[in-house]
Every structure is written in C-alpha cells, then in structure tokens.
Amino acid sequence: MAAEGVEDDRIARISSAIRVIPNFPKPGIMFQDITTLLLDPKTFKDTIDLFVERYKNKDISVVAGIEARGFIFGPPIALAIGAKFVPMRKPKKLPGEVISEEYSLEYGTDRIEMHVGAVQAGERAIVIDDLIATGGTLSAAIRLLERVEVEVVECACVIELPELKGGERLGDTPLFILVNAAIRVCF
C-alpha cells in the first residue's frame, strides 16, 4: 500500500529532497540518496510524522529497524508511538545471543540478526527501512519476527523501486511507501 493519491504536500517535499545519483553503485542504476533528506530538518520531520500518524493508534509495541538506514527512521517513530526499537543487524554486529534468518541476494546469501529476547510472542511490530528494492531483507525480517510469534502488522519504507517488485516477496504483509522511484537510467 503506497501513499499515492494522498493530498499532502509533504510527500512532494520528501520526494524532491531525495538526491538521485546516476550510475551509482554501477552503470545504469539511479541511486536514491536519503542523506539530502536528512539535511532538511522540516522534511526529515515530515517523513517521521507521516509514519507516526499512520502507526500511532495501531497498538504497535515494536518498531524493527533494518540496518543501517532503518536505524535512522525507526527510533524517532518508536519514541513517538510509545514502542520499543529493535535493531535488525548484519551478522556478527550484535554483542549478545542472537537468532538469525538467511535471505538470497543477487549473487549469494546474507543474514539478518536480532537479539534473543528483544521481542515477545504476541507483540505487534512494524518493520522500517529507507528503501525496498527486491524485498529480500524485509522478507527475512518478517520471517525472523514471525518465528518468535510476533505479529508483523506492516512494513514501511520511504522509497520503493517498483520495477524490482520487492513488495511481492512480502507475502500477506502490507507495505506502506511514501515515494516510488525509478532504478534505471533512461537511455
């Protein structure tokens, strides 16, 4: 579910604050750089506010943020809605006992980890990241939370690359997006 059709000038400001860098990290890719959004306090606040408005009355107890840019958006959302923030990290980054979930990359696999005991069965969670591309990381985060009987209410991202159809990998978990973007340079 995207924020399309929302009559809210904040969406246009957010979209225009995202710098697009052609041919990064490789030729043909249009990289969506959120660092420019973060430099604009009003637009950064608007981004957080849109997510807070969506989740503040949904009985969410966990905001799970995907490393690394989910760590930027997740904590302020969690604080504003009265939920805890749970970091979902790359392997060997968390100091305590972890559980992990493997996911496929274009070439090979990777894992995402979470501390054992960070969440409890029956809690309601949202999963936050800056961008969804192929959906591999978000789907691994969903599986990891569901393994410990947490209800994943929704995934939320600032940007979606719709050409890669990442939302299709999330199964029945809804996806909330603020901005849709292109991934390839038009030749």
Automatic annotation (TrEMBL):
It is found in: Cytoplasm. One of its GO terms (molecular function) is adenine phosphoribosyltransferase activity. It catalyses: AMP + diphosphate = 5-phospho-alpha-D-ribose 1-diphosphate + adenine. Pathway: Purine metabolism; AMP biosynthesis via salvage pathway; AMP from adenine: step 1/1. GO terms for biological process: adenine salvage; AMP salvage; purine ribonucleoside salvage. Coiled coil: none annotated. It is an enzyme of class 2 (transferase). Its EC number is 2.4.2.7. InterPro entries: Ade_phspho_trans (IPR005764), Adenine_PRTase (IPR050120), PRTase-like (IPR029057), PRTase_dom (IPR000836). Pfam families: Pribosyltran (PF00156). Keywords: Cytoplasm, Glycosyltransferase, Purine salvage, Transferase. GO terms for cellular component: cytosol. Residues 41-164 form the Phosphoribosyltransferase domain. PANTHER family: ADENINE PHOSPHORIBOSYLTRANSFERASE, ADENINE PHOSPHORIBOSYLTRANSFERASE 1, CHLOROPLASTIC. NCBIfam families: apt, PRK02304.1-3, PRK02304.1-5. Belongs to the purine/pyrimidine phosphoribosyltransferase family. Homodimer. This is adenine phosphoribosyltransferase. It comes from Macleaya cordata.
